[in-house]
Write a structure and sequence with these properties.
With 280 residues, the chain is of the alpha/beta class. It folds into two domains: 120 residues, Rhodanese-like domain (Oxidized Rhodanese, domain 1, 3-Layer(aba) Sandwich), CATH 3.40.250; 119 residues, 3-Layer(aba) Sandwich (Oxidized Rhodanese, domain 1). 29% of the residues lie in helices and 12% in strands. The strands form two sheets. Strands 1-5-4-2-3 form a five-stranded parallel β-sheet. α2 links the parallel β2 and β3. The chain is globular, with a radius of gyration of 18 Å. The termini are far apart. The relative contact order is 0.16.
């Protein structure tokens, strides 16, 4: 089995397997005014459960999508009926799966895979779907560990851009990166950290064809073409730490371990007057 991805055929053959928990983790930035849960109830993969990224994040933070405490993450996993022996398969309709993959991994659950091509590919291939809210599973006894490494703070990013200790790779679209478009979050302007390198997430999951991740070899070429020296440590960032995980996911597929995700990302950085910013 691939250490990172599963294919639709593999998953379809295991629908109903009690050892496999399927999570729809679709989510949208506020400006789109769309409800991922409503879409889930209209159609989803049979047996899937809905992972609410907002409730699975730190709801006390002023910044969106921040990692919750280990205790809170364990509560969410238990409510979803996920045990420490469960194989978790995550999918979504856009770009969120890598973030949830990372969340499970950082809280100690390594039995997690991303559905390659996600919901768009599943639908395009005419695979089975069901409607309605997910059934409430029996609560599990999931245990989460405290996060170790892989989480960067604004201080880490500031040090990286001032002292060159790491490459900062920004996964947002070029329009948001350069400030041509707003951030996608009310009250937060576009722009980027000085010295950050733009590697749009859509290059890693092309939004044409079958919506699958590019191969590790293609990902390496994309990083290098953008100017990212992948021999150095890398900090990935984006609008709120979601698409940053796509870059991290691809770095992990390349065998790199010296990467971190800036959890606050631009939603934090862009609102702080004491941090340097650039736009074009």
């Amino acid at each position: 089995m691939d250490a990172f991805l599963v294919e639709p055929q593999w998953l379809e053959e295991r629908l109903g397997d009690p050892g496999v928990v399927i999570l729809d983790c679709s989510w949208y930035i506020p400006e789109l005014e769309k409800s991922a849960r409503a879409e889930f109830e209209q159609e989803h993969i049979p047996g899937a459960r809905f992972f609410d990224l907002d409730k699975g994040s730190d709801e006390t933070s002023p910044y969106v999508n921040m990692l919750p405490s280990a205790q809170r993450f364990a509560e969410v996993a238990r409510e979803l009926g996920i045990g420490n022996d469960s194989l978790v398969v995550v999918y979504d309709s856009s770009y969120v799966s890598a973030r949830v993959w990372w969340m499970f991994r950082i809280f100690g659950h390594e039995k997690v895979r991303v559905l390659n091509g996600g919901w768009k590919r599943w639908k395009a291939e005419g695979r089975p779907v069901e409607q309605g809210p997910a059934e409430q599973p029996p609560q599990s006894d999931f245990i989460a560990r405290e996060p170790i490494g892989q989480v960067a703070t604004w201080r880490d990013v500031l040090d990286a851009i001032q002292n060159g200790g790491a490459v900062v790779a920004d996964a947002r679209t070029t329009e948001r990166f350069i400030g041509e478009l707003p951030s996608g979050y009310p009250g937060v302007a576009g722009g980027h950290m000085p010295g950050a390198i733009n590697v749009p997430w859509g290059r890693m999951i092309p939004q044409k064809g079958d919506f699958t991740f590019v191969s590790p070899e293609e990902a390496e070429a994309i990083f290098r073409d953008a100017g990212v020296d992948i021999e150095r440590p890398v900090i990935t960032t984006c609008g709120s730490g979601v698409t940053a995980a796509i870059l991290a996911f691809q770095l992990a597929r390349l065998g790199k371990t010296d990467w971190k995700i800036y959890d606050g990302s631009w939603h934090e950085w862009g609102q702080r007057d004491d941090l340097p910013k650039e736009s074009i």
